[in-house]
Structures are given as C-alpha cells and as structure tokens.
Specification:
The protein has about 50 residues and is mainly β. It has a domain of about 35 residues. The chain has no helices and three strands. The chain has a three-stranded antiparallel beta sheet, with no helix packed on it. The chain is globular, with a radius of gyration of 11 Å. Bound molecules: zinc ion. Zinc ion binds next to loops.
C-alpha cells in the first residue's frame, strides 16, 4: 500500500464522503468546494465506495 506521509488522519468531505486535500484548517474537496476543518465531523466514517 501507499506510504503514509502525513501524521494526520485523512479528512473526508461531510457532503460527498470523498477524501479531502489541503488542511489542516481549510480543505479542498475534489467535487469543487471547500470544507473548513470545523465543518468536518471527526467521527464521520465514510462508506467505501471505491478501493
Ligand atoms: Zn465535497
């Protein structure tokens, strides 16, 4: 598997369930919008739509 280069857990879009880029304060969703860290539910567990 890929080597994890970041100590931070992956942030997931609360709307799309997709992995976000950027952070730790402001993330970018591949769907084309931004998500603030405060809007991310840290308990959120996205469904595995793809592997
Ligand atoms: Zn999104």
């Amino acid at each position: 598997m890929a080597t994890t280069t970041s100590a931070r857990p992956t942030a997931w879009c609360p709307s799309h369930g997709t992995p976000l880029e950027g952070g730790p304060i402001l993330f970018r969703c591949p769907e084309g919008h931004r998500v603030q860290a405060a809007d991310i539910d840290r308990e959120y567990q996205p469904r595995r739509a793809e592997q």
